[in-house]
Amino acid sequence: MAAFESEKAQFDRDGFVIVRNLLSSEETELLAKISRADVNLAETAYGREDGKGAVVTLAVRNELQQDYYSSIVKSQRIVKRMSALLGDEVYHYHHKLILKEPRVGGAWEWHQDYGYWYNNGCLTPDMGSCLIAIDRATEENGCLQVLRGSHQIGRINHGPIGDQTGADLERVAVAVERYETVHVELEPGSAVFFHSNLLHRSDQNTSENPRWALICCYNTKKNDPYKESRHPGYSPLDTLPDDQLLNAGHHHLEQLTQQSSG
């Protein structure tokens, strides 16, 4: 945990930490190939309209499976870092892929993840997410935006905006004035770890380039939900050694190749 002390100080102050090259180039290329060849992913993805009617496509997984996405979720390099940042053992809460396509990918309105997760019986915001860029994330293709330090505001009430749920617009307007907006531009394989109370959003993708991302979400053991929801309660996370991640990716890609040819 000592290796992450400086990152934890930044996380506590800013509400987020950017980690360059979290995945190697080979690991990232595998993730891109697998996600785009995954018929099940395409079939289970669904859309959420933003406030202007544009659609963001996503696929959510509440349970870990025998696939590359789950292997990344369980990888020690992510789990150990998230545990250090949140100060407790963490477990898999859910993971999702965001599939923001060129020209048509919609925006995400300003929100806090805890604005949703609070209603799932999580008493405290001791929760966090790790967003990993599959494609290069830029302002032009609708990269993540965060308000630096806004996790210190505490939970804000949320309500419907289009098909999405967004933070109270009156408080968001003041927060945007008082906190610095950071566009989290990432190269493929780089990531941002962020606190569940951090206000964040993204613009529509107006570019010719896709912006796909994998988001791994974690809760802390001490914050085990007091009631059931679609996301799981605490169970120990069987972490995956980092040197096994490539093998998991190659195995998943081989399975997809066999399915497409058979």
UniProtKB/TrEMBL annotation:
<keyword id="KW-0560">Oxidoreductase</keyword>
<dbReference type="GO" id="GO:0005506">
    <property type="term" value="F:iron ion binding"/>
</dbReference>
<dbReference type="Pfam" id="PF05721">
    <property type="entry name" value="PhyH"/>
</dbReference>
<protein>
    <submittedName>
        <fullName>1-deoxypentalenic acid 11-beta-hydroxylase</fullName>
        <ecNumber>1.14.11.35</ecNumber>
    </submittedName>
</protein>
<dbReference type="GO" id="GO:0016706">
    <property type="term" value="F:2-oxoglutarate-dependent dioxygenase activity"/>
</dbReference>
<dbReference type="InterPro" id="IPR008775">
    <property type="entry name" value="Phytyl_CoA_dOase-like"/>
</dbReference>
